[in-house]
Amino acid sequence: MLIVRHLSIREGVRMEKDDFKVTPWEVTGDVDYDKLVSRFGTSYLTDDLISRMPGGRENMFLRRKIFYSHRDIGWLLDSYERGNPFYLYTGRGPSSGTHLGHMLPWIFTRQLQEMFDVHLYFQMTDDEKFLFKEQLTLDDTRRATLDNMLDIIAVGFDPARTRIIVDTRDISHLYNIALRVSKKVTFSTAKAVFGFKNSTNIGSIFYTAIQSAPAFLGSDIAGTNVPCLIPCGIDQDPHFRITRDVAPLLGYNKPALIHGKMLPGLSGGKMSSSGNAAIYTTDSDAEIRKKVMNAFTGGRSTVEEQRRLGADPDICPVYHHYEFLLEPSDEALGRIYSDCRSGALLCGDCKKHLLSKILPFMQKHRENREKARDRLDDFVFRGGE
Ligand code: TRP
């Protein structure tokens, strides 16, 4: 049974190689991250650039090229090295609970905040999710906002330097910027970038202006241009292409970007909120255990075959969970990789080992998440900071 799935996925990789789709709202097919760099026209994050970041080479996400692509990081670092501060901006579209795939860029953003000792705006786009998800009401997306904020705070951002902006609550601080942005973006640009149709609701067409706003907010508040760095999944790049195009027209710097890969779901493919393959921060240990033990792997159909032929970590979401998040030691990761390839490591044991990493990680997160309930006020954006 397993071998059938295994082969069909491999067939799929061959057939769909050119057939994947990455937009801010939809990721389908087998994502080729190298092709995205040329499709989107971004640049690879080179070792030279990484070593210019304080602690860059020690950072797991950078070293392993989980965050692997960028726009204008060289320019940002030049300016930083000359003593100019910058600020970070990232966000979350609150449509459902938080899973591990969401947390990965947040953890990286917290590390960037620590590395550079900088301010962060975290945008909660409850408006976006209301507009783009047919079935969601504004109450739904507000509820998800509050729920997701607990996870964001639990990741450990510095409350003195982090402000969470909730679009529907804090719109008065964004609206003037969004208006100025929207006046510079034509409908034909929005159609070309996002694939909008005549049947698209008009709120969705305007929305990108709202996602641009925090990239300029720091400059408006400071009264002078302050460079902005946006860590995000590469699927968000289309929004910021627009932001960068309009920036000079409005007298701002273009924001710099650092793009991450997306954590694959445990049944293969992006860890989607609709599938059952994502590990949520509210899952019980029993649910997590079940998801991990049922995960798709790069394994063979029988123990005998696996011992003889080895398995394929490159297509295995269990392996990717170690690589992307849960095994910080390169040496230990390398051992898992080669033991998998050689057939020394069987999938059942590998999954149990992964559980021994995930369960304490989630336990700790759940504790921090509970503590976050009393700390929401510490992160409220009040304008002017
Ligand atoms: N659109 C993003 C999402 O759906 C949310 C978001 C808003 C964001 N601003 C951002 C993500 C800046 C990364 C960086 O999740």
Q: Give the % helix.
A: 40-55%
CATH architecture descriptor text of the largest domain? 3-Layer(aba) Sandwich
Shape: globular
* C-alpha Rg (nearest Å): 21 Å
CATH topology annotation of the largest domain: Rossmann fold
Mean pLDDT rating: 93
Main sheet: strand order: 3-4-9-8-5-6-7
Tell me the total number of β-strands: 9
Whole-number count of domains: 2
| CATH homology group of the largest domain | HUPs
Give structural attributes.
Rossmann fold, binds tryptophan, globular, alpha/beta, about 375 residues
Note down, in words, how this protein is organized:
- The strands form two sheets. A seven-stranded mixed β-sheet has the order 3-4-9-8-5-6-7.
- The radius of gyration is 21 Å and the shape is globular.
- 45% of the residues are buried.
- Helices cover 52% and strands 10% of the residues.
- α6 (100-116) links the parallel β5 and β6 (120-124).
- It starts with a helix and ends in a 13-residue tail after the last helix.
- α7 packs across α8, α8 packs across α18 (347-372) and α11 (202-212) packs across α13.
- The protein contains 18 helices and nine strands.
- The protein has two domains: 2-262, HUPs (Rossmann fold, 3-Layer(aba) Sandwich); 285-371, Orthogonal Bundle (Tyrosyl-Transfer RNA Synthetase).
- By secondary structure, it is an alpha/beta fold.
- Mean pLDDT is 93; it is low at 1-17.
- The longest helix has 26 residues, at 347-372.
- The site of tryptophan has 13 residues, from β5 and β8.
